[in-house]
Amino acid sequence: MHALQYELTLPADYDTGIIRDRVARVGHLLDDWDGLGFKTFLLRERGVHGSPVNQYAPFYLWNTVEGMNRFLWGSAFQGLVNDFGRPSVRQWSGLAYEEGAAAGAPAAFAVRRREPLAEGIELCELMAGAVLETRRIADEDGAVLAAAAVDTGRWELVRFSLWTHDTPKAEGDVFQVLHMSAPGRDRLPRGQQW
């Protein structure tokens, strides 16, 4: 499992209706993408759920590197680049994935939390803790799914969860889910990823 995200931070007075219209127009294009576990089309708006910015920030979990590479190096990602410029694309290696207590319900909100991994802590303990926390979050009322992944270049942990309601029981940046393409969600490996 591989996690991927890019962020487009937009001007404070940006009409986020433009992003909503774009997602309504192109969101379905990944509904059957081979190798994709899921893509969530995410938006946060300045002043909503404590967000200091307007930001479009899709989050992906991939089943295969080949599917991810077809997306990045093919015409799908190029459309976004043509419209907004080439964003920095963050990638993380999967640590854990769990379906949530509300797995069958549509996701309305997402929470993403990035945290640096401190020096001097045993990596095996830290990763085992991330796996347990992923399971705990997934078991919360309203959780659709939960995942954890790590960027070993920056030594950063990312926790990601989807929720049915706007009061998620996880800490981090809260995003609205505009659309979710999930052609391979049922094939994402559950639990610990090693």
Report on the structure:
With 194 residues, the protein is of the alpha+beta class. The chain has a single domain (2-188), classed as Alpha-Beta Plaits. 23% of the residues lie in helices and 37% in strands. It is built from four helices and eleven strands. The chain has helices at residues 17-26, 65-73, 75-84, 123-138; strands at 2-6, 8-10, 36-44, 54-56, 59-62, 89-99, 109-116, 143-151, 156-163, 173-181, 191-192. It has an eight-stranded antiparallel barrel. A hairpin with a 4-residue loop joins β8 (143-151) and β9. α2 crosses α3. The protein is globular and about 45 Å long.
For the structure shown, list the relevant keywords.
194 residues; alpha+beta; Alpha-Beta Plaits; eight-stranded antiparallel beta barrel
In summary, what is this structure?
With 194 residues, the protein is of the alpha+beta class.
Write the layout of secondary structure elements.
Layout: E1 2-6, E2 8-10, H1 17-26, E3 36-44, E4 54-56, E5 59-62, H2 65-73, H3 75-84, E6 89-99, E7 109-116, H4 123-138, E8 143-151, E9 156-163, E10 173-181, E11 191-192
Antiparallel strand pairs: 1-5, 1-6, 2-4, 3-4, 3-5, 3-10, 6-8, 6-11, 7-9, 7-10, 8-9
Helix pairs in contact: 2-3
From the alpha-carbon coordinates, what is the Rg to the nearest angstrom?
16 Å
Average pLDDT level = 96
Supply the number of structural domains. 1
- Spatial strand order of the main sheet: 1-5-3-10-7-9-8-6
SS summary, helix count: 4
Name of the level-1 CATH class:
Alpha Beta
> Given the C-alpha coordinates, what overall shape results?
globular
